[in-house]
Structure formats: structure tokens, C-alpha cells
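ok trying again, last paste got cut off:
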Amino acid sequence: MVKVIGICGSPRVRGNTEYMIREALNTLEKEGVEIELIRLGEKNVAPCEACEACSKLKDCNITDDFQEIFAKMEAADGIILGSPVYFGSAAPQMMALIDRAGYVAIKKGRSLERKIGASIAVARRAGANFTFAQMNYFFFINGMIVPGSTYWNVGYGRGMEEVAKDEEGLRTARNLATNIAWLLKKIHS
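nice, full thing came through this time. structure:
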């Protein structure tokens, strides 16, 4: 069975970002895809220290929850990254993860290459497209396959689960998931 993990970069548990990721994951599950949600808000992932130990070790020298999460990224067929917008950028938790994962994956012989990657950004008002693109850069530099949807994968809301009122955003997340499932079936047939 193919598997997709959703990684929520929000420090808020059950907030808007998680709501959007769950919308996509639930659609994938209905399509017969195994799913898992990882909340960075419940994990400790420190920022990259630029120590370059990954060049020699082919792993990160910092001991925290990164190793567990990265192993799941390598084992998955698809990865959905979701982040709230923090001053026009992805949340620090997400940036810490993708900065370290990018270096380690490249040093391990491009271990994420040809996996499916998709990003979802959630904003109160603005900056969603920058955050959406920022996470997509991670996929592109790692040689991952990035499927589209019917619009950019962004949602809008500030208060807890306020994004539930953004029907277009939710529809876009479901369409994205449907495209991911279709692509996984094509790749694995």
C-alpha cells in the first residue's frame, strides 16, 4: 500500500493548518492511501547549525525528533507539508525541518527524489503564496514530483478552525489529494 504523510508546521494543535492537511489526508484515505499526520508542534526540531556533519555522517548531528520524522519522510511515497504564514514566511518549525531534511536528503544520494510533494499554506490575510512557494522550493530542489490542484493550495482563517469556512480552500485541498492519489496509482501500477 502507498503512504502519504502530512506534516503540520503549526505550533497549534488542531488549528487551521492541521484542518487543511486533514482535509487532504481524509480524501487520500478514501482513495485507499495509507496516511499519517505528524505535528511539529508536538516535536522538537532544532534549526540547522551549518556544522556540515551531514556531509560525513549522511545524517544530521543534532539529536532531536528530526531523525524520526526524516525516516518517515524517506519511507513515504508522498509528503504534504503545511504551514501557517508567519510574516510572509513558513513557520520556524517548518523551516527547521525542511532546511535540515534538504541537506540530509541530498547528502544521502537524493533520498527524497521522485517522491510526491505538495504544500499547503494557511494565512489570516496575506503571504500565503510566498509560504506556498517556499515549501515547494524544498520539493523542487530535492527532485520531487509536485502535482497541481484547481488553485494554489492555500486557505484563509485566523481563529481555531476558522478555515472550515473557506470552502474554496477546502475544495482545493481535496482536489490536490485526488490528484496525488491518481498520480500514486499511475506510478505504482
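cool. The chain has a mean pLDDT of 97. The first helix runs from residue 16 to 30.
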